């Protein structure tokens, strides 16, 4: 039995996007990250907000789980997720 491949979110480090955020040709997936709410190909291409900027705002806003239809995994920790994904933006404390 093989599980479908999952993809990490470049904004928040959520490890389980269903599709790659960008196709090899560069188009966005239009998938919305359930964790940070970034929509690939829309938040960046249409709204002009870079993943780094979205991450900065998400962290500043308290790193809240974004999806209203999916609940966060039990014992989910945004801080741990960012650290594990080695994404910048967290203060060192
Ligand atoms: Zn995300």
Give a verbal description of the structure.
- The protein has 2 helices and no strands.
- The protein has a domain at 32-67.
- The chain is globular and about 35 Å long.
- It has 93 residues and is an all-alpha fold.
- The chain binds zinc ion (ZN).
- The site of zinc ion has 8 residues, from loops.
Features:
mainly alpha; 2 helices; binds zinc ion; single chain; globular; 0% strand; 93 residues
Could you outline the blueprint of secondary structure elements for this entry?
Elements (H helix, E strand, L loop, with lengths): L50 H10 L17 H7 L9
Bound molecules: zinc ion.
Quick take:
The chain has 93 residues and is an all-alpha fold.
Assign a percent range to the helix content.
10-25%
Largest sheet: none
User: Which residues form runs of ≥5 with pLDDT under 50?
Assistant: none
Quick one: how many beta strands? Answer: 0
Beta-strand content = under 5%
- Counting helices, strands and paired strands, the structural category is mainly alpha
- The number of helices is 2
Shape: globular
Mean pLDDT: 94
Work out the radius of gyration.
13 Å
| Secondary-structure element string | HH
Instruction: Please report the distance between the alpha carbons of the first and last residues.
Output: 42 Å
Q: What small molecules accompany the polymer chains?
A: zinc ion
